From TrEMBL:
Protein name: NAD(P)H-quinone oxidoreductase subunit 5, chloroplastic
InterPro entries, A to Z: NADH_UbQ_OxRdtase_chlpt_su5_C (IPR002128), NADHpl_OxRdtase_5_subgr (IPR018393), ND/Mrp_TM (IPR001750), NU5C-like (IPR003945), Proton_antipo_N (IPR001516)
The NADH:quinone oxidoreductase/Mrp antiporter transmembrane domain, residue ranges: 143-443
Keyword Plastid: yes
EC number of this enzyme: 7.1.1.-
TM region(s), chain numbering: 12-31, 43-62, 87-112, 124-143, 149-169, 181-202, 262-283, 295-313, 329-349, 432-453, 540-561, 596-615, 712-732
Summary of the function given for this chain in its UniProt record: NDH shuttles electrons from NAD(P)H:plastoquinone, via FMN and iron-sulfur (Fe-S) centers, to quinones in the photosynthetic chain and possibly in a chloroplast respiratory chain. The immediate electron acceptor for the enzyme in this species is believed to be plastoquinone. Couples the redox reaction to proton translocation, and thus conserves the redox energy in a proton gradient.
Membrane topology: Multi-pass membrane protein
Amino acid sequence: MAVELSNKFACIIPPCPLLASCLTGSFSFFFPKATRSLRRWCAASNIFSLVIAMFVSFVLFWRQTATHSIQQYLWARIPKSDFRLKIGLLIDPLTLVMSILVTTVGLPVMVYSDSYMCHDQGYARFYAYLSLFAASMLGLVFSPNMIQIYIFWELVGMCSYLLIGFWFARSSAANACQKAFVINRIGDFGLLLGLLGIYWITGSFDIYELCDRFLELTSSGVVNPIFANTIALLLLLGPIAKSAQFPLHVWLPDATEGPTPISALIHAATMVAAGIFLIARIFELISTLPPAMSTISWVGGVTTLSGATLALAQKDLKRGLAYSTMSQLGYMVLALGIGASQSALFHLITHAYSKALSFLGSGSVIHSMEKVVGYSPDKSQNIFFMGGLRKYMPITGITFPSGTLSLCGIPPLACFWSKDQIITESWLNSPYLGLIASGTAGLTAFYMFRIYLLTFEGDFRANQINYIESYMSSPSEYVIHSWGRAQLDLLTRRTGNNFTSADIKREEFTKIVNFATVPISKRDQSYSERNLLYPQESNFCMVLPLIILTIPTLFGGLIGIDSTQKGYGLNFLLDWLISILSFSEINKQFEKLAEVLISSIPSLSLSLIGLSISFKVYGQFGKIFNTKDNEKLKRGGIVNTFLVSVRDWSMSRGYIDYFYKIYFVRSLILISKFILHFDQWIIDGLINGTGALNIFGGESIRHAKNGRISQYLFGLIIGTIFLLQLVVDFPIPPLP
């Protein structure tokens, strides 16, 4: 009875947000004016539907922990001779954990969106898309067969297309959603081929059944190993594109063109999490194929390192977080490739809450910056326009560092525990992968703490930059260097003065620097009389989700520690809380915690080194310019050249987009033009030429047939004479 009741409860989880999305979308389409006046009720209905799904997910998870059972609820069948497809739900630990993750991240995002999107005309449409996104992801995780997974997989991609291009009037957003769509089509085509191949081998789409049959056939040697690995790699092509793995990662940074709440949902619990989930779901299938496992581990390793290096010098706040997501997803794929599937899922969960907190915190910052610099992503998302925001936005300034330090791998925050497990497993599997994972931990600490320092510490720079722009008539992106130093070429570029002497150039630049660093109120009385704007803390609906997400970011990692590696229980947090009531157990818990920290010293030391370097470079970034530091960097020689190369690599996105544009986009355009001209001049030319010839012949015959018998007789005589002449000149040979 309990099992049947649980299955019935599971049946309402995906339909809840789906029903809310359909009602909201239909109501806004058929009754647009009424929707504008009742849009808050539409938002409330979508939020309430996700609350129901979250509550049911927790109830099922609680029962599953007690029964440890795997349940399937199948309510429909499609029989056709040998082909039989069962539609239903699969309830196992992976399903319920992912369901809780989607709902608990999606709910704060929906609450947050109420304030973030309140002035947008597409408010109701945005909530309809959000609920459809959540319903698609929930349908994906509850799918018991590959056909259902593929259908919901495509729905997730469609929702991401709609939400990334939500502000489709902006060309950048329209291009970003098309880019995401095209890149994911490449992966989805490989996934489709893999599904057809796996069905051809096993004759089944049921996940557990096809995994068992595939394992049996490969172990007995019935299936060619090369063919089996090819099918596995085709299956993995879909997750590689969906989870933004190298080299199909180029869509993820541009996906930040959508509203910030959807960026949080994509990067935390839906779009990119779908790829990790699918690899974990078919992990039993690919784990028997060492070449496929090795390939996926190295794809994850390269993605981890490349994502970290691309994030080092980003000026855009959301784009820096996007490359951080790419790097952390590489950790998960790397862990799956070396067989540490539980560590990968553990990091998926801890990263989801930390990254959702970071993105929603960045949205709070951007929302406040728009009131100061205007609605311009080049300014409102530029971290060099920010600074000192902790003073003006205290709640955001407290919660944002929690997500930052968690992603940096600082204990006892959530991502420390999961990342440390992956690094340990990487060293045990391959020293090269271990080196990549450990080095990336230090880079992650550097660029994440850089984002925090430039955003929340120092002085607020937007007003100063605006003043310097008005004084020098130059864009601010030439004023501040990506590595924190001023750009001395500014005078030459914007004043038109070609300084032949470096000393004169430095002297003139120092005058402007000294003038710029004087408080604005003392520079110009007319300027000081203006009402300077400063960011303000976001309202309650935006800061409440930040506070809520801070809790799992701080303590979520203590729940899922792997006892097989560390030597303590799976529920370390619960054991710790129980021990508080029993003083005799406190020493044991401290010993366990000390054991964890001691074993994590190597990876933790790299993170601390990254933090220290970041603080050294950006910690004193209180002023806009620092000529002394600039002169030191100018004299740096090899070091300065290396830093400039890294900066150019990061700002140019690793030149990968340029490579794709040159060798793929332009090649496709040339091929398309060739096909167009071939179609116009050869195919259409042949058909059109035949038609024109018929018209010309018909017109000629029409003019020749004028009804005069004398002309007909004359033509007949001429033709007869011509034929007779041919017979005389070329006689017919006799038959043998």
